[in-house]
Write a structure and sequence with these properties.
Strand order of the largest sheet: 5-4-1-6-7-8
Order of helices and strands: EEHHHHEHEHEHEHEEH
Low-confidence stretches: none
Number of helices: 9
Mean pLDDT: 95
Radius of gyration: 18 Å
Strand content: 5-15%
Largest sheet: 6 strands, parallel
CATH class of the largest domain: Alpha Beta
Number of strands: 8
Length: 228
């Protein structure tokens, strides 16, 4: 029986499309400052290779490839990127998600938000407009860990007072969200949104229990799985 749903923040709850577009432009500009003038094809190739490699941090992977794997250049661009992006790191609530979370909250099921950062993930959830709809917000940074470390998901389950096998995870990455949740015996839904939406599973151990591409499809998938 599913007693709690654990939602990854970046992607499922937070639509970062416009933020990601600005990040693309920032990276190109930062390389230009280092007298490296990138062509659109260069950037597309770096993105494609980074996605294919399942890089833990997408932006760090893109910068590494655009820098020609030169450590000094990559570090300089990454440091400046991280500093600039820190002041522009909030997206908007994904369409339909506040209404879906409110409906789940009214139904009495446990709800936990989780992500690697920031440490004060609750404030980020509030800023997105979810208010007090979540029972807890579990930050990997606050636990000195990061996805796919299972401790993050275990902590999210514990925050609701349930066992891992009583949880369902909604995430946008099969390798960082779905696979570790499956290893803990959790039900999983892959919300195929954002840059990772078309990255296919590597083998059967990453197959989710359901897939969705919108809040409406997610609501239907949740209903199906919770009725089992």
């Amino acid at each position: 029986m599913i007693r709690a749903i654990l939602f990854d923040v970046g992607g499922p709850l937070e639509d970062t499309a416009q933020l990601d577009d600005r990040a693309d432009g920032l990276i190109v500009d930062l390389f230009r400052r280092e007298t490296v003038h990138l062509q659109p094809a260069d950037y597309l190739a770096a993105e494609t290779e980074t996605l294919a490699s399942r890089a833990p941090d997408f932006w760090r992977g893109v910068i590494w490839r655009l820098a020609g794997r030169a450590p000094a250049l990559a570090h300089t661009v990454w440091t400046r990127f991280a500093q600039a992006r820190g002041a522009d790191s909030k997206g908007v609530a994904r369409s339909g998600m506040i209404e879906l979370i409110a409906s789940l909250h009214a139904g009495g099921i446990g709800l936990v938000a989780f992500d690697d950062a920031p440490r004060d993930l609750g404030a980020r959830i509030d800023a997105l407009g979810f208010g007090a709809l979540f029972d807890a917000a579990i930050s990997g940074a606050a636990l000195d860990t990061a996805k796919p470390d299972p401790r993050l998901l275990r902590a999210a389950a514990q925050a609701c007072g349930v066992e891992p096998g009583e949880c369902m995870v909604v995430g946008d990455r099969v390798d960082m969200d779905v696979a570790p949740a499956r290893r803990l015996g959790m039900a999983t839904i892959w919300l195929r949104v954002g840059r990772w939406r078309d990255v296919e599973v590597r083998d059967w151990t990453e197959l989710p229990d359901a897939e969705a591409r919108s809040a409406d499809e997610l609501a239907r998938a949740l209903d199906r799985l919770m009725a089992r």
